[in-house]
Amino acid sequence: MTKINTSLHSSRRKSRKAHFQAPSSVRRVIMSAPLSKELRDKHNVRSIPIRKDDEITIVRGTNKGRTGKVTSVYRLKYVIHVERVVREKSDGQSVPLGIHPSKVQITKLKGDKDRDNILERISKGRTEKAERSKAQE
Question: Each residue of 45-61: pLDDT tens digit?
């Protein structure tokens, strides 16, 4: 079988190295989260890079079902922090729990013109691809 993307390594060692040494711009794309069913139907987009002030629902782990607003996107650790999803330390101090963006679902997007342009561009590409595949049949 031939490689689908020749710019990516299929070697475990080199793939892990690329992942953990990725620059912030690449980490942003890796830290994409799926959209809820309603948003997916509305925008015709499956997932989008997560950002601060998006409203999310946790879909995996011990905090499954909890909802909240993203307080920070910690690209260095590949995690996001969600309001009211915290852990009490032994001295009583509360620290935010890191959650991987793939384990959440975006329920409300914080929109600005750049984000709208991204959604528009992705949606346009998806519709063009669908039309091309219909034309080939």
Answer: 999 999 999 999 999 99
